Please model this.
Amino acid sequence: MTRQNLRILGVNAHPHDFTHYAGTLGIHASMGDKVTVVTMTSGTDTHNEKLADELRKPMADRDLAIINQSMEEYAAIKLDELRRSCAMFGVTDVRSLDFPQPFSVQNSPEAIEVLKAIILELQPNIMIPQSPYLKGPNGFPDGTRDDHTETAYVSIEARQEAKKASFGSTLPPHTIAATYFPGIYFER
Model:
């Protein structure tokens, strides 16, 4: 019996979140599965270590090219890093949606429809979004939500909406067979 190739959709809050499941996606890509990675934001408001390091230096020692870098320039660097990282794991379909940070369903309700359209286009068998669970290293016990959990909620809602037939759409509804969450979000 021959193995049927899978279609896998990974959904991140920020470009660097790809590292949470890069190995898994790389294995699938090497087996011939179609893998797509979507990042909901450009990640410009998170993990800008170069800027943080420069701002810690005395004024006279700071690299002005880093200090004066625009958000657009930094976003382009982050997207290029994501594309190059994905390529190392055999993933070539990389999409950045560039929703504003902090990312939330409340501030960007259209994100559900945008992600739903991607689901209907790709017809994935498996989706790997951020985790909606609020416990663990990236969760907040007080119920606070962040870009990661908001991305999870958008992903799950888009998955549910993709199951429904929509008036005016020429695309058939699609049910994703399995949804998995990266293990990094669970207590060890």
Notes: The first strand starts at residue 7 and ends at 12.
